Amino acid sequence: MIRMTKMCRLAAALTIVALAAMAGACATGGAKKPPTGTAEPDKFLFDRGNENLGRKRWIVAREYFRQLVDSYPQSPYRADAKLGIGDTHLGEKSAESYVLAINEFREFLNFYPTSPRAHYAQYKLALAHFNQMKSPMRDQTETRDAIRELQTYVAKYADKPLIGEARAKLREAKDRLDDWHVGVAEHYFRIKWYPGAVGRLMPLLKDDPEYTRRDKAYYILAESFERGKQPAQALPYYVRLVKEFEQSDYLEKAKLRIAELKATVPAAAGKDVPKGPRP
Questions:
Q1: For residue 269, what are the contacts with CB-CB under 8 A and spacing of at least 6?
Q2: CA torsion angle for 116, 118, 124, 129 (degrees, to 10)?
Q3: Fewer CB within 10 A of the end CB, N or C, for the chain?
Q4: Which burial class, exposed, middle or buried, applies to 58 when counting CB atoms under 10 A from its CB (0-12, 13-18, 19+)?
Q5: How far is the CA of 218 from the CAs of 46, 59, 172, 183, 233, in angstroms?
Q6: pLDDT, tens digit (0-9, with 9 covering 90-100), for 99-117
Q7: Helix, strand or coil, per DSSP, at residue 27
Q8: Which pLDDT does position 28 carry in this prediction?
Q9: Residue 223, SS3 per DSSP
């Protein structure tokens, strides 16, 4: 179903962009061609494309790049021009243009897998998904796609200049997906289905111990154990919250619960605290 939806989106995007291209051709005088007698026509197209890309004239830049790609298949600039086409779609920042950008960058990776700029295509492919991520309690399909593509970048291109940005965005995307899980757990907690909250939060904390906002996850998990009549299981998560976070909206409440539980549930006080990441 998801694959069919994406195919439909791509088909719709292609139709819209085709119409936009027709309108753009009327406005800009049609396909961009090098002047007759130009010594290096492919370089001329590439330079004009980059010039307009820098000025954010997306349609004009795309016309130059497309002319190069279509007319000069042996040009040393052809691969970079294809990336330029993807960049123009990414720059337009619409749902349709993101779909087209994804298509361009994925094609680049298929056609030029050993290119020195394959890492750039992989990053921009991930970015096209990342830029479409929705708020935590909405559909997280694009978030999952962004995580997948960013993980690919981190695994394959750890020595490339964009690795720092890729890791930062991967953390942000993982946090977005984790926020969704915490939101679901919080809903279960509110309707008093505590096993549901525990079932959401335990795997989250195991699979992603570096989750930025795990203090909230710790607190809801501990409270769910308490409300579910399992205070001994609650205490270690309150303790972990206090140990790992110097600042948190849940810090004082967690300290209070620790004191109360240690006073009322002696058996719990001797429980080992689950190991977690260092603060």
A1: 235, 261, 262
A2: -170
A3: N
A4: buried
A5: 54, 49, 19, 13, 12
A6: 999 999 999 999 999 999 9
A7: helix
A8: 44
A9: helix
CB 251: neighbour CB atoms within 10 A?
15
Taking residue 258's Cβ as centre, other Cβ atoms within 10 Å add up to: 20
Please give the C-alpha separations between residue 201 and each of 64, 89, 192, 219, 277, in angstroms, as whole numbers.
51, 38, 15, 10, 16
The number of residues in the chain equals 279
Q: How far apart are alpha carbons 28 and 19 in whole angstroms?
A: 14
The residue type found at 185 is: A
Phi, psi of 261 (to 5 degrees): -70, -40
| Tokens (6 digits) for 92 | 């337009």
pTM of the model: 0.83
Axis crossing angle, helix 78-92 with helix 118-130, rounded to the nearest 10: 10
Q: How many CB atoms lie within 10 A of CB 171?
A: 15
pLDDT number for residue 278: 37
Tokens of 174: 């993982």
